[in-house]
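Researcher: For the record, we're logging two predictions in this thread. I'll number them. Prediction 1 follows.
Model: Prediction 1, sequence and structure:
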Amino acid sequence: MSSLARVDNAYLSAPCSINHLWAYLTHLAYMSSWSRTQWGELSYLYSGIPHPLFNLFYGDVDTLSATQKIEVSTLAKKTPSLWLQKEKPADVGTDFFSEFLHLKNSIPVHGLTFETAHKVGNLVSGTEFHLQQISTYEELSTFDRISAACFGHEAGMALEFMRGLSLKKDRNALQLFLIYQENLAVGAFQLFCHEGVRGLYWACVLPQYQQKGIGTAVLARIFQETQSHGFNHLVSSFMPSCMGVLKHFIPREIRPLHLYAISPTQTLSHG
């Protein structure tokens, strides 16, 4: 576990999807030595990469002092970012960012908590694919290209964001995978273990291979392996384009995440 993730233990009550997501992001930031700033209940992970996916405000803004508001507004105007609220109603704090930026509508992302005891054998066997854990820079570059095609960022940005990631299989709570079909890399995802709960993140399938059952089959395989490793829960965050898999998997909890783009120049592709 990263030292930054330990700092946030007070906020974690597994298997809460939003808290697990924040632990995952702080782990990534710690591994790559990205800047983290804290003002009371608001944190900011800053990479400087000019796309909102890679710079994130997290927490509440209604308790900021006047000086802190100036600092936050200066950073928000400088770099495309996202803002993820904690557990408050969606409209709390939106006026703050709207004072100096055009605050876009909330991005429709849901946090999900699954119990891993799904009967999924028939879902796995129906689609041919294999998974490869990433262990080389070349494979990490392939992950970057798939992410760019799915999420609309420039090639190289995800690679830069994960620049400090250890690819040694036995040394990292975060594992990256490529999805292959007929020897072609068609998708990717990450698994992160924290506080006895496994999380599925950055999952994507190339647009031309979507709606073919690949995502459903891969998720079924992840359920099998997660349960075999002794985890009772899997948490994740899904965008609308991914919600079709819920026809096959019933989550224990679905929680809307209040996520906003506060970028003055770029938007986030969210299907």
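Researcher: Logged. Prediction 2.
Model: Prediction 2, sequence and structure:
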Amino acid sequence: MLKMTMRCAVCFLLALTVSAPAFALQMLTEEYPPYNYTENKALIGLSTEIVVEMGKRANVPMTFAIMPWPDAYEQTQRKVETCIFSTARLVNRERIFKWVGPLASNEWGLFAKKGFADKITNLADARPYRIGGVTNDAKIMWLRDMALTNIVEVKEDKLVPGMLTLDRKKLDAVDLWVTGINAEKFIVTKNKLKDVKLVLKIKDEPMWLACHPSLSEATITSLSNALAAMRKDGAYKTIIDSYDKKFAP
């Protein structure tokens, strides 16, 4: 595990300091723990380690870069030999990417300040409230498909907790935060927040590696076969278990 983490760190630092070689597949991601995030200036996370190992086994050179999700999402659609992780495979995204995975599973939830007293038992109950989320993120796309349209978009997930309020009339604020349950735990702990609570679990969604549609089928197949081999020989489970332990309540 330590060796794998160090390899991630090296890939990340190289991506920041040198130009990517023409043959390398560029992997873009965001700060979204425990799946992909930086720690001591190194890119780590369970999805990161899975993707690194897939590249090694498939003999696919990779460079890594971390940036706000909207930027990564747009770049992956524009640039050949580029992939993004970790992301949900929604119907409206199916044809704009090629897919490898799933890498992991992500349980989504709606969160509020602890003083939030209104009862929310389903998505319909949440429609009157302002919901903060990340631009181009699957969660807000899905909420809009579910007829929740009062969405306030930001570039990074960590910005939303500071916008939460109990005052429905406060400007530049939100009443609810949509994020992953694991991500919320990490962000709240890291920022020493004690006044955020889960109000509704809404969905359990697989997370994938999504690549530019022009990426060769041979590369997609090689990466998919590598992931299948990791599941078969236990390497995948070892990575998942290590982060389950690290992020246990």
